[in-house]
Amino acid sequence: MPLPTAKQASATTVWAAKQARASASAAVAAATTSASSALTAGAASARQLADRVLSELTERFENDGGGASLAQRLLSTAAFPDSELEAILSLARATYELDVAATPFLLAAEDIPANLRCLGALRGASVELAFRGSTTSGSEGERKLDNWVKVNARARPVPLDPLLVGGAPSLSDDEAPGLALLLSAARVHRGFQQAYLRLRPALLGWLEATGGTISMVVGHSLGGAMATLCALDINLRGRGGAAALRTATPLTSTHHDQ
C-alpha cells in the first residue's frame, strides 16, 4: 500500500482537527444546555417556593383579620419583647416624640430651625444613637416643612465634607489601601450631609461628655441617611466600632454599597 503524500497527510490532519473541534464544541454546547436547564429548573423551584410561602402568609393574615403588616406580625413574636431589637426600636421611635423628657433617652443634639434631632441611650459603657426622620411636626407641635425644603430637596451630589474625612487616622493606614481614593471619589446627597453637619458639633460635645464607646447608630428615612454619615464619621475617627442600622433609608451616596 503506497504511503500518503505530504499533501494528503496534511489534509487528513486538518480534517481530524476540525472533527476534534466540532466534537469539543458539541460537548460544550451540551454541557451549557444542561447547566442552563438546571439553573432554570432551580429558579422555577425557588419561585414556586416563594409563591407558596407568600400565599400561606397571606392566607394566615386574612384568616386572622388582616390589618397588620408583616413587620408588625414578626415584632409581635415571643422573641421580640425585652430583646436588643426592641430596645433599639424604642430608641428610634422616641426621636419622634414631642417631649423628649418623657422618654427614657437623652437629647444628644437638636437643631430646631432645621427640625433635626438625635437621641442617645447609655447602656453601660456603650452608647447608642438614633436620628429622627423627616417630620412635619416641630419641637412645639407646630407644622414645619424644613425637612423637605432645607434637606430632602437639596439632592445635588457633593463630595464628602473635610470635617467627615479630613485627618482621619484610618486614611494613612497600610491596612486600608485605596480608602483615601474611595472617600475622595464618593459623592453624597448635599441636604443629608448638611443636616448631619448641623447636628455634629453638639453631638460630638455630648459624646465627649458621656465618654462612652458608640456601638450602634440607627435612623429611619432621613434619620437613616444621617446615621450612615455619622457611622462613617465615628468609625474613621476611631470613636468606636459603630454599626449603622437603617430603615427606609434613601440613597445617601453614589456608592450603592454604602
TrEMBL record:
GO terms classed as biological process: lipid metabolic process
Gene3D superfamilies, per database record: alpha/beta hydrolase
Top-level taxon of origin: Eukaryota
Coiled-coil spans in chain: none
Pfam families referenced in this protein's UniProt entry, alphabetically: Lipase_3
SUPFAM superfamilies: alpha/beta-Hydrolases
Domain Fungal lipase-type: from-to ranges: 178-238
Name by which UniProt lists this protein: Fungal lipase-type domain-containing protein
Native source organism of the sequence: Prymnesium parvum
